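Comment thread on ticket #2218

A.B. wrote:
> Attaching the input chain for the structure job we discussed in standup.
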Amino acid sequence: MNVRRLIPTAVVAGTVALGLTALSACSAPDAADGRSDGKLNVVASFYPMQFLAEQIGGNHVSVTTLTKPGVEPHDLELSPRQIVGLGDAGLVLYLQGIQPAVDDAIKQSGATHTVDAAKLTTLEDHGTEAGGEEPGHAHRGEGAGADPHIWLDPVKYAEVAEGFGKSLEKTDPGHAADYRRNTDTLVKKLDALNTAYETGLRSTATRTFITTHSAFGYLAERYGLVQEGIAGIDPEAEPSPARIQEIHDVAKKNKVTTVFFETLASDRTAKTVAGDTGLRTDVLDPLEGITGKSKGADYIEVMRSNLAALQKALGAK
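C.D. wrote:
> Ran it. Output below, let me know if you need it in another format.
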């Protein structure tokens, strides 16, 4: 994970104050109720939230995302218009603790119609798991050790989907039946994804996988796997010789074959470790954004690609 370029609170506050003055004249007449063209305006902080909003909102919502495709979410910098837009949105769906710039902007913008995905399920601490995960895998801005990567566990993601669906029903009761139906459809897809993972990873030659980005704690716990993070909070950091030796020992002991890297960060660390340990490299996508390099067009497709990659690396039988 890249080191984040955070926007100082004072700068955000000043930006919002100026933005409210400069941009209010550009707001649509119906901005007060968070609508445009008859649709509820929903702002999503980054891709996993965007996917939920689009799937559940369907034709009744207009979804915009604060994080453009290809931008590492943790490095996000918000424009004045984006910050002001939070206050005008009909609903803001975000995940507190993973994008401090968004957390700060929501506070400073005075946005009241917000849904924090972190409050729709239970966050856990995967920072010091048995199996070698390096201590200190708490993202800057999180609670003590809280792991925000809940969307990589289909079961927890389904819990978030259900909670957001209820928020949409309450915000826009005229379309509640459609939101409920769309939520049920998505949850069924996530249940099927969970079953595919349970079945596909039930019997493997090893239960340990190595990744540059320690984002898969929930996934590992759900399916009885062990995540070995190389650099913890920064997948592009150069691992120390001692850590490479640890990874080498873990790989040899647990018959690990692959070092995983992600699509939105450099593969340099993965190749360094793989070269030093005689392992191959492959992609395990933390799904923080969809780009042309993604192995799938949406969350479900990429998660199934991740399953195939894990099956290959772990020697699924």
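A.B. wrote:
> Thanks. Noting for the ticket: The chain is about 40% helix and 15% strand.
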